[in-house]
């Protein structure tokens, strides 16, 4: 917008220089942390009065419009390397100038309080991505609908829906983050937020995950614990596993079955272990023989 109202491009418009200065002043206040703090505390009058000495205070031109601002042409030149708007394809951040700044350079932003300083830090938009243990074992593809807010030429915020495709790799853990750069809301600086999905693990009916290992509890009767038994369970991939137990099983005993746990995401064809913990169910009473 600074380029649109640059006096060199509007030699016959007496309002152009005024608009150009207002845009430059708005940017300078919004990009200066101390000026933003003063505005948040005291409003526009506080900025116009300089706050160091009150309205019309020391160092200020009696509350005049310049109130210590830099030359707007110097500010323009610091970005584009020259004072001619025709030599750069870039403008000031979207939303500066236009009608919203005609009466005040401090119009509220539809995005709250983003950082207007340069270089700016664009925030991230976080979303949880719940996955079953089976999905994290096999890997899967999910399609997520997100709503991105963009700015139209007048600076108004408009919602736009988009579908993002997410490829879940086998072995990914909860807390894994997937970032889609610039797919979030557009900010007044002209940059868009990143969209970040964070993997969440849904509870499983009987398996629990411990890193790359799978944990499961199995109950056996006292007779099975003393005489031996065969453990049967259905794995996450649908396989029916059978393990004979020929030793006495003590309460809380654990056996480890190698390579039957979760896949390692960074090591193809490598798996953690399956760890079975036994609970011995004692009879409530004994029969007399």
How are the elements arranged and paired?
Blueprint: H1 14-30, H2 33-49, H3 72-80, E1 124-131, H4 133-138, E2 140-151, E3 157-168, E4 177-180, E5 194-201, E6 208-210, E7 213-221, H5 222-227, E8 229-234, E9 240-245, E10 254-257, E11 263-264, E12 267-271, E13 274-281
Parallel strand pairs: 1-5, 7-13
Antiparallel strand pairs: 2-3, 4-5, 6-7, 8-9, 10-13, 11-12
Q: Structural class from helices and strands?
A: alpha+beta
Our count of helices gives 5
Low-confidence stretches: 50-68, 78-121
What is the β-strand count? Answer: 13
Query: Largest beta sheet, briefly?
Result: 4 strands, mixed
Q: If you compute it from the alpha carbons, what radius of gyration comes out, rounded to the nearest whole angstrom?
A: 33 Å
Largest sheet: spatial strand order:
6-7-13-10
Helix content: 10-25%
Shape summary: rod-shaped
Q: Could you spell the SSE succession in H and E letters? A: HHHEHEEEEEEHEEEEEE
CA-CA gap between termini: 97 Å
Mean pLDDT: 74
User: What percent of residues are in strands?
Assistant: 25-35%
């Amino acid at each position: 917008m600074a380029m649109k109202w640059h006096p060199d491009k509007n030699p016959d418009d007496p309002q152009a220089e005024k608009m150009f200065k207002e845009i430059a002043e708005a940017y300078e206040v919004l990009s200066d942390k101390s000026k933003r703090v003063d505005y948040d505390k005291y409003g526009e009058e506080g900025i116009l009065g300089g706050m160091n000495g009150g309205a019309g205070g020391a160092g200020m031109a009696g509350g005049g419009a310049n109130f210590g601002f830099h030359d707007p042409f110097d500010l323009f030149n610091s970005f584009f390397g020259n004072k001619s708007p025709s030599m750069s394809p870039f403008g000031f951040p979207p939303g500066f100038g236009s009608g919203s700044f005609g009466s005040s350079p401090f119009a509220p932003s539809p995005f709250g309080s983003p950082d207007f300083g340069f270089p700016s830090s664009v925030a991230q938009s976080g979303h949880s991505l719940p996955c079953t243990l089976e999905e994290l074992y096999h890997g899967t593809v999910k399609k997520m609908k997100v709503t991105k807010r963009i700015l139209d030429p007048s600076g108004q915020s408009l919602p736009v829906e988009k579908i993002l495709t997410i490829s879940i790799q086998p072995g990914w853990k909860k807390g894994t983050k997937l970032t889609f750069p610039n797919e979030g809301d557009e900010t007044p600086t002209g940059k868009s937020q990143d969209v970040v999905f964070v993997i969440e693990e849904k509870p499983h009916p009987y398996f629990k995950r411990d890193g790359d290992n799978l944990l499961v509890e199995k109950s056996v009767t006292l007779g099975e614990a003393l005489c031996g038994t065969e453990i049967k369970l259905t794995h996450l991939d649908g396989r029916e596993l059978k393990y004979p137990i020929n030793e006495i099983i003590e309460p809380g005993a654990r056996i480890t079955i190698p390579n039957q746990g979760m896949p390692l995401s960074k090591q193809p064809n490598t798996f953690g272990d399956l760890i079975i913990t036994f609970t011995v169910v004692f009879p409530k009473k004994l029969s007399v023989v």
